[in-house]
Amino acid sequence: MSMFLDTAKIQVKAGNGGDGMVAFRREKYVPNGGPWGGDGGRGGNVVFVVDEGLRTLMDFRYNRHFKAQSGEKGMTKGMHGRGAEDLIVRVPQGTTVRDAETGKVLTDLVENGQEFIVARGGRGGRGNIRFATPKNPAPEISENGEPGQERELLLELKVLADVGLVGFPSVGKSTLLSVITAAKPKIGAYHFTTIVPNLGMVRTHSGESFAVADLPGLIEGASQGVGLGTQFLRHIERTRVILHVIDMSASEGRNPYEDYLAINKELESYNLRLMERPQIIVANKMDMPDSAENLKVFKEKLAANYDEFAELPQIFPISSLTKQGLATLLDATAELLDKTPEFLLYDESEMEEEAYYGFDEEAPAFEISRDDDATWVLSGDKLEKLFNMTNFDRDEAVMKFARQLRGMGVDEALRARGAKDGDLVRIGKFEFEFVD
What does the pLDDT read at residue 243? Predict the structure, then answer.
């Protein structure tokens, strides 16, 4: 079984804020002691940190739930609860994080040590010391901690490479990688020897260096799932230059030019933007019989079918076996990399706006629906947050929550929808009677 994993779906839950405390001063010789309950501590965030030592998402195969600790409760003498430590989750370089519900990209983590908060902890609830007023100097009211953010995430690993090798199976991509880098990919005389991306570093004679990724072979119909499909093509999205390796000997009876067209079609079907990347055609296996004649025919067909105003891609005849033409190919690749900018992986429509953990002012504060049992159901982020932060063990807190609902217009909205005195109203699992 391959130990390479480049996608994962996980759930993260930030810590809840600690509950505020109801307490009063009860010191000797101090009459009419006032409120003395402290605030709860902040819940821990869930933070992704890039670790250059990781190469796959294998750590997320069996551990898919990540939960940060909640903050401590407030204490007497006005003391705050301790805030919780953030939960650090280490991910490999090149990890893209998406919200599973919206599909929006939250962040693209590419720099070693880069951090991103994927779920923010809730703030601590206020203790009763915060609610003292001249009219109510000894309030028996406190808040529960704010719930931490909870979300489902999709992780995608797209390896960091400057150059990507593409081509049909058995055209010599793995052999080429093995002779131009120190990488040791599996090499065999059968299709799909490579079933995971392989990375290697190239250093040219002139001192230039760049990373090369050898991707599992494509075949015609890969965009429809044939063969290994396009499951590994995500790794070419970060590359700036594509080396299109072609078996110019036609040793398996295929036509080199038709192979070239077929692979480009699969790249285009996967992602139109892949065709924006400059390509260098690598005419491999030139040490084989008929390769020279096949290359001549290939060049003629390429020129005949190319737009007269477009620049023909460079073609480099090489032999990975005899190492013929490799130095020239690597120098040309380094030169093309120098003048090729990085390609943006995502446009603004795919990226989620900067994370905002408050409420959308334009969103309704609450929504009213009706269950099959004729119970009125109240929902909405703002209303549910107020509900979760209300301490229903304290009568004053319950009365405060009732005033908040009235201030939000819940009573009037229920009345307008036809609610009658004694009707049941539900918020989450909590039910109460509507009083007209």
Answer: 95
